[in-house]
Amino acid sequence: MRLVRSIRPLLSFLAIAMLASLALILQPAAPTQAESDARPALVSGTYQLDPNHTSVTFRVLHMGFSRFTGRFDKIEGTMNFNANAPEQSGLDITVYPNSVNANNVKLEEELRGDKWFNVLKFQRATFHGVKIERAGPAAAKITGEFTLMGVTKPLTLDVALIGSGEHPMLKKPVLGFSATATIRRSDFGLTNYLPMIGDEVTLQIETEFNKAD
């Protein structure tokens, strides 16, 4: 027993040392100068949203049992990108609620009706970016004016740059982003079935922008 007690601290020390060594081995190395130089340079200019490679999905709590997810299929957008000063870039996005896709024809018809999106009266939802703040080497917060159902509220998008470079088919610069945001639907007059259906709605945006000719 004395032997066990005497070697227990040594074993603990060895275990910690092994874990520390393993962490150093697994930790990714910082990019070399050559690797940094090989990364595609960001190109300033006007970019158009690629609707074929863009999705805007929404997620809302359904009766406390699940998070229902739907999407909008028609989106347009323009970005004026300043590579030297990204915070001076501009962004405008338009989403068409009539294109709502819930994987359920009956539900989609209900969502287009006057109890929900009322698409005959409110044909567009828009986001106009007014302030861009860097949040890291490839991240930013874009604050802007979000208009839905005729109501305009401030909204901040948490944006991450996924990739950039020359599109292999289009042969022009392309930028790819992910973005998330959260709204309260009651702020825009969408109060049906509260609180059975949650008030907080999470927006997830995946998109590519192609440089305009």
Helix content: 10-25%
- Overall pLDDT level: 85
- Gyration radius (Cα, Å) is 24 Å
Structural class: alpha+beta
**Main beta sheet strand tally, sense and closure:** 8 strands, antiparallel, barrel
Encode the helix/strand succession as letters: HHEEEEEEHEEEEE
* Shape estimate: elongated
Give the helix tally: 3
Quick recap:
Helix content is 18%, strand content 47%. The chain has helices spanning 2-26, 33-38, 105-112, and strands at residues 45-49, 55-62, 66-72, 75-81, 90-95, 100-101, 125-136, 139-148, 151-166, 173-184, 197-211.
How would you sum up this structure, described in words?
By secondary structure, the chain is α+β, with helices and mostly antiparallel strands. An 8-stranded antiparallel β-barrel has the order 1-4-5-7-8-9-10-11. A hairpin with a 2-residue loop joins strand 8 and strand 9 (151-166). The chain has 3 helices and 11 strands, in the order H-H-E-E-E-E-E-E-H-E-E-E-E-E. Helix content is 18%, strand content 47%.
Question: What are the salient characteristics of this protein?
Answer:
single chain; 213 residues; alpha+beta; eight-stranded antiparallel beta barrel; 3 helices; disordered N terminus
